[in-house]
Amino acid sequence: MISFLKSLADLVLVFDEESKDWINVPTLQRLWYSFCALALLFFLTSLVVIIPFQDLLSKSKIAVICVRAFPLCIDAALIFVLINMSIYYFKYVLEMRATIRRQNILFFYVVSVILFALMCRQLWLLFPSTFSYPEPPFQYQSDIIINGSPVIKLTLDFVLFSALSTVGANYFALQTNSALSAFLTWLQGIYTLSLIALLIASYVNQKVGLAFTEPKSKKEKQSSQNSKDSN
Question: What is the tens place of the pLDDT at every residue in 181-207?
């Protein structure tokens, strides 16, 4: 079963022209497996446990706290894996002077926005005082499991908050209100700036590599031509 899931994860990379070279980097491949495994764990837990038994779980305050804390832990783990994936990807690009895949950069950015948004959302569901949220889509209660359209509206607000945080902008409907939420916003901003810095460094590294290889190639061609002329 595990081998099948690994093969499936590899198939996703091979299918995508922009990321198929990840398979050649063992560390990146292992991180990708970890990312897929965590995402699958969250999906299966939600599908098999949380959604079918939400009415039963809502009767226990401890169960509700666990239901809200579980996605928070998964999000934190996914963010950790994502950061490491981006580090090893750029390390591979710099060492091999490989082509920078724009789709990979977009993947890192978009997924980071979504994961930070979900993490902040779960943090608010556990500790509402961590964010200033004057008009949430439902009346906050600590002992119920929220689902349906209110969760969609809640998630959209936090996604907008997360996206705007990457460019240092504020979202009028939602603000940080604690050291923890401010730290998460700061961490996301640092990660986005790091993506930009690494992108520039990779581009410069490629150009420097070309600057050294092109004259060498010309010199070899000239030497070859001279050999032919002498013959």
Answer: 999 999 999 999 888 887 787 777 666
pTM recorded for the entire structure: 0.79
Instruction: Please tell me which residue, 56 or 71, carries the higher pLDDT value.
Output: 71
* Pair of tokens at residue 191: 């990660």
